[in-house]
From TrEMBL:
Gene3D superfamilies xrefs: Vaccinia Virus protein VP39
Domain of life (superkingdom): Bacteria
Keyword Transmembrane included in the entry's annotation: no
GO molecular function, one term: methyltransferase activity
InterPro entries xrefs: MnmM_MeTrfase, SAM-dependent_MTases_sf
Biological processes annotated in GO: methylation
Protein name from the UniProt record: Putative rRNA methylase
Keywords: Methyltransferase, Transferase
């Protein structure tokens, strides 16, 4: 029997596979080890485009190697900069954006997303989103800066105008050890 509620990442993958289609323009705001970037690149097809951001050279390099191995590098632009500067690099509307926050698995835990730049990045990203576009955020409240980030994101998203956005929160409320939380924002068409 298929399970719908495995964890936040699994729900992200399911939404991605449904929402991102051939020809889509999408953003991976935190490429890390490149799993999401690779999946997105395979979904957008030859006519689509993926923009990927990370502040760490290691993340950019390991993602580039993965993409080249899978012959997907031609449709991806990897950008070594903070996602808060997204509008410096993207001058078009996008259909889907994923923020998988926190630190690089296997990397330095001190290099992690921070609430101030994350909120700025989400604000700028929402401006770039097409009508009916989706922005997903996975936040990890199990570590100290993730806990602050979760509170700030919660405060910020609660105030988004409901005429413009539908905002959802998937929180696994009967699990111990602070599992990741998924926020989903859909831009309404007016
Ligand atoms: N999506 C990734 C994957 O599929 O492997 C996992 C992402 S990892 C949890 C978070 C990443 O965010 C790290 O690689 C980290 O370097 C990056 N990061 C931290 N601050 C950032 C910022 N301001 N802008 C862009 N990326 C940032």
């Amino acid at each position: 029997m298929y399970k719908y509620f495995v964890n936040a990442i699994d729900i992200v993958n399911n939404i991605m596979k449904k929402r991102v289609v051939e020809g889509s323009t999408v953003v991976d705001a935190t490429i890390g080890n490149g799993h999401d970037t690779n999946l997105l690149a395979s979904l957008v097809g030859n006519e689509g485009k993926v923009y990927g951001f990370d502040i760490q050279e290691d993340a950019i390099n390991s993602t580039r190697i993965k993409l080249e191995k899978n012959n997907l590098d031609n449709r991806v632009r990897l950008i070594k900069d903070s996602h808060e500067y997204i509008q410096k690099y993207i001058n078009e509307k996008v259909d889907f954006i994923i923020f998988n926050l926190g630190y690089l698995p296997g990397g330095h835990h001190s290099i992690t997303t921070k609430s101030d730049s994350t909120i700025k990045a989400v604000e700028k990203s929402l401006e770039l989103l097409n009508n009916n576009g989706i922005l997903l955020i996975v936040v990890y409240p199990g570590h100290s800066s993730g806990k602050i980030e979760k509170e700030k994101i919660d405060d910020y998203l609660k105030l988004l105008n409901q005429k413009e956005f539908t905002v959802l929160k998937f929180d696994f409320i009967n699990q111990i050890n602070h599992p990741p939380i998924l926020y989903g924002i859909e831009k309404k068409s007016n």
